[in-house]
Amino acid sequence: MQHWVEKEKKEKCKYVTIYYDFETTQHTAVQGKQDTFEHIPNLLVSQAVCDQCADIAQNDYFCNVCKNRQQIFHNLDNPDLSVSAQFIDYLNSFPARYSLLLVAHNARSFDSVILLQELVKRNINNELTLQGAKIICMKAGPWKFIDSLMFLPMPLSAMPKSFGLNELKKGYMPFLANCPDFYNYEGRMLDKDLYCVSGMKSKAADDFHKWYDSQVAKNYVFNFRKELIEYCISDVTILRQACHAFRKLFAGVAGFDPMFQCITLSSACMAAYRRNVLRVNTIDIVPPGGYHGRGKQSHSALRWLDYESHKLGTVIKTIHTDREVSVMGRRVDGYVELSLENGGVEKRIYQFHWCFWHSCPIHFPTTQDDQTNRYEQTQRLTAMFRRNGFIVIEKWECEFKRELTSDPEVKAYFEANPTTRTPPLNLRDGLAGGRTSALRWYHKADVTKGEKIKMADVVSEYPNANLKGAYPSGHPILFLEGDPTMPPVEEWNGMVKITVLPPQDLFLPVLPLCTCRTCAVTENKDMSAQCKRKTDH
Q: Signal peptide position in this chain (predicted)?
């Protein structure tokens, strides 16, 4: 693993961060689903900052780089106007040399989804980074949209206290009243039910009731339009100042701006580690194809090649013995050169064909709808090798499976060599975590007998392991089955892939076991008799 190199800011480019927030109506039913309502934006507030003015707290500030800091877009007077379109027009007003970083809280599930619709409508090319169905990053030309929740996993209401912003406090808004019927409302406080009190936590609900009752007691005049805009401004101000404080704190420790360089807190922490702590050539990165070759090769193919090597009496080159060989620019499963009596050399290629991937004519015959005739491609490749003087030995997956059960010589070989060509060692297979065993599904405590139900948990061992545990440095030394240079077992310090015969009478097993779905659903307790899945690890 190498040191992390941060992206440098270009001298001729201007960098601006825009914090923004949508307010939406929820009274328009989705077509065909009368009980489902669409979030349609009717207000957006944004605040722009750059390196020159980021430390200035006021909202109504004018900067020579980012111009008027605060922008307000709404359609409260004309519902036909698109708030998203107004905001995109505002972004387009920046010169081409400006690079814009746009930040919203929970953008991955809300704000970015709304803006993506407008980008698609305008045929603006975009690039999404997804976490499941959530948009954690969206790029469109010089614009980069990220989610502050990926860096600050807390509600906006908690940010002022977390970052010492004592002059700021998130307010309350009757979200259910955000519809045209209330746009021009001015009068007494609206009903509590319109504030979604049922969705608040107990402390937040208590604080709300105190605030609401105090407003009623002093006969506060509630102006919906004014309150909606001020509420949105307050949210964006909290977001801007909290993110600015976070970015300064992080940069002071790590030496770089996390939101400019990264898209999540975890990636920022890893970048900080690689930039400031990691020593060169200490942490090994396992090659994508494993240590035995650049690509993956199937377990079945390697078993067949082992048997062919046994019959031939010499070693066939594979990814386990050498590296996967390329012949005429094409990778092959096995390759060997045999000396002939006349002094010549026989160049022999071994190819194992998976029935599905190579369109086995028996089990997966090519159809008229098949745009890529994989069987013909396989045949053409074999013919090309043979035209150029190579001997090609082919084996279909179905044919080899049949030999494993019906050919006496094949059966005898693998019975005598049961561990021949186990699947390659995968380091992740040695990691098993989680305490999900339920020793009892249900128990009703007998209060009359003084019974109590308590929960016991174990404090996470990860911090202790990270602090005191030994970490491997550099690449491992590899030993394959039968290697005469392999050290004695007592000298090993690493990982080994072996077959274990586990004890069958333990109430709490010591080895992890992955059951198949059928066994889990049917609650199969005798998998050795009914489940075809092997239990070796």
A: none
Pair 48, 191 in one domain = yes
What are the tokens at 318? 């594979």
**Minimal CA–CA distance to 322: which of 311, 313, 309, 312?**
309
State phi, psi for 349 to the nearest 5 degrees.
Answer: -110, 135
Mark whether 356 and 503 lie in a shared domain: no
In a domain, residue 464? The reply is no
CB 337 within 8 A of CB 345: yes
Choosing from 416, 449, 469, the residue where a domain stops is 416
> In the chain, how many domains are there?
3
Q: Does a structural domain hold residue 433?
A: no
CA angle 202, 203, 205 (to 5 degrees): 65
Residues 6+ apart with CB under 8 A from 245: 163, 164, 165
Do 219 and 318 reside in the same domain of the chain? no
Residue whose C-alpha is closest to residue 306's, from 425, 424, 410: 410
Dist. CA 19–CA 44, nearest whole Å: 10
Task: Please report, for the domain that includes residue 52, its CATH number.
Answer: 3.30.420.10
Residue 388 lies in a domain: yes
Strands 334-339 and 98-104: unpaired
Domain boundary among 416, 445, 468: 416
**Region for 203 from its dihedrals, namely left if φ exceeds 0, alpha if ψ lies in -120 to 50, beta otherwise:** alpha
Residues 312 and 264 in one domain: no
Structure-token match 């975009």, residue found: 126
Answer whether residue 448 is part of any domain. Answer: no
What would the mean pLDDT of 42-71 be, rounded to a whole number? 97
Per DSSP, which regions of 31-156 are E strands?
33-50, 62-63, 67-68, 70-74, 98-104, 127-131, 134-140, 143-147
395 neighbors 307 (Cβ within 8 angstroms): no
CA distances from 267 to 264, 271, 472 (A): 5, 6, 22
Task: Yes or no: say if 517 and 510 are a contact pair by the CB < 8 Å rule.
Answer: no
Q: Structural domain of residue 536, as residue ranges? A: 499-537
For the four alpha carbons of 486, 492, 493 and 496, in that order, the dihedral sign comes to positive
Res 288 pLDDT > 90: no
Q: Express each pLDDT in 436-486 by its tens digit.
A: 566 777 889 999 999 998 877 766 777 888 888 888 888 888 887 777 888
Q: Are residues 227 and 343 in the same domain?
A: no
Question: Residue 20 and residue 48: Cα distance in Å, rounded?
Answer: 9
